[in-house]
């Protein structure tokens, strides 16, 4: 009879969204219905009669269940999108301008400035990628959970992509600068092999984190 | 009975608040208290009960928590808040006003004649 009541409640919630709230309501209803059923049995009712009385006492649950799917709406803030655009623009400008000190100063100071520019630009991109607005669940359904998970993993990948991209750019800069300064073209290409190794390590670290 | 329950329906939330004024309770406990108090003449439908619980919880009149029963069943308890107590007093006053008006309007004999 326990099972019969459980099945009946399940059938009532067949069309309900799979939210935490719905599951809790279902559990609450089942528990109270069991209490009522047991009470009726102890009053001397037959199992059949107790079941019928308990089920009849539920009433119309349509509006109750319909109320479960009312989710909150989420607005993507305009300001965060503007901030994204600003950060990316500044970072790109810094990348483009980074060789200028080397060309103008023609010294190691210029080279150091190049690295400062690149580091600042990379820092901006990473900061922007990591602090991007997270996906907010509109409801507690599985679909929303999946969207949130997807968005979050995409964000982690974005941070990794930003770092890897900047590592390659830095490698190209280092290769050109070092090659011109030392003239050792026959050996400087090794920088790219080292970069490839570093990139693989960065990817590995991100995978471990996930 | 059905006409009477129609008349009572508007006061469902007040009735529940009145039960919770005494002590915390779960769904069936509240409904059983109502049934006993009316000598079995009135009982809320489960759907009505949960709808009222939810409305009261959303408006901050009550809060809920899961009890940890050692006897197996985990029940959801409701507890009245200060806001709920205030709301109960206001609703009760409203009812008393309405009751007085209806009594007057439905009374026979006395009063001005048309």
Write the layout of secondary structure elements.
The complex is a heterodimer of chains A (about 210) and B (about 110).
Chain A: H1 2-12, H2 20-42, H3 47-56, H4 62-66, H5 78-97, H6 100-105, H7 108-130, H8 142-182, H9 185-188, H10 190-209
Chain B: H1 2-9, H2 12-22, E1 25-26, H3 27-37, H4 46-58, E2 62-66, E3 76-80, H5 82-106
Antiparallel strand pairs in B: 1-3, 2-3
Helix pairs in contact in B: 2-5
Describe the structure.
Chain A has 210 residues and is mostly helical. Chain A has two domains: 2-69, no CATH class; 78-209, no CATH class. Chain A is 78% helix and 0% strand. Chain A has ten helices and no strands. In chain A, α7 (108-130) packs antiparallel against α8 (142-182). Chain A is rod-shaped, with a radius of gyration of 31 Å. Residues 71-76 of chain A have low confidence and may be disordered. Chain B has one domain (2-106): Winged helix-like DNA-binding domain superfamily/Winged helix DNA-binding domain (Arc Repressor Mutant, subunit A, Orthogonal Bundle). Chain B has five helices and three strands. Chain B has helices at residues 2-9, 12-22, 27-37, 46-58, 82-106; strands spanning 25-26, 62-66, 76-80. In chain B, α2 (12-22) crosses α5. The longest helix of chain B is centred in the last third of the chain and has 25 residues, at 82-106. Chain B is elongated and about 65 Å long. In chain B, 23% of the residues are buried. The chains are: A mainly alpha (210), B mainly alpha (114). Chain A binds chain B through residues 24-25, 27-29, 31-36, 39, 57-61, 63-64, 67, and chain B through 26-29, 31-32, 43, 45-48, 50-51, 54, 73-76.
